[in-house]
Design a protein that fits this description.
Layout (H helix, E strand, L loop, with lengths): L3 H11 L8 E5 L4 E10 L16 H14 L2 E2 L11 E9 L1 H6 L9 E9 L2 H8 L22
Antiparallel strand pairs: 1-2, 2-5, 3-4, 4-5
Amino acid sequence: MPKAADFKSVLKNMKNENKKFGIYKTDDEKRLVFGWASVSIRADGEQIQDSQDDIIDPTDLEEAAYEYVLNFRDCGEEHIPDLRKKARMIESCVFTKDKMSAIGIPENTIPEGWWIGFKVDDDDAWAKVKNGTYQMFSIEGTATRLSEEGGE
């Protein structure tokens, strides 16, 4: 069971502007890694726009996360098909305003986003997590780009 101090350090890291999507927690002995797969809205309410100028609505992110958990659940390296199945999903939760309210997380505490955890089975991939080569998660997928008005 995580100690309260561990949870507080995760919250502190989430507020660090230089580490918005970084890996927040690892367990060396168990080879576990945790962090945000994607964040739609920062804890302060700001909608995130990615490097391709795209935004992900929290509802769409939640739907994509459920699809991933139902049909995939493994983790690869750098979106390369030959480097799949390096880790197995052990944790997934999409934090929406409704869920945070239901479990008592105060507003403006954590972002609306998808929190994940993996057990890394591959020795080389784990070494890259430990040496800092892999510092964050990256989701892969396809989407249809819509204008702000909702049309293609």
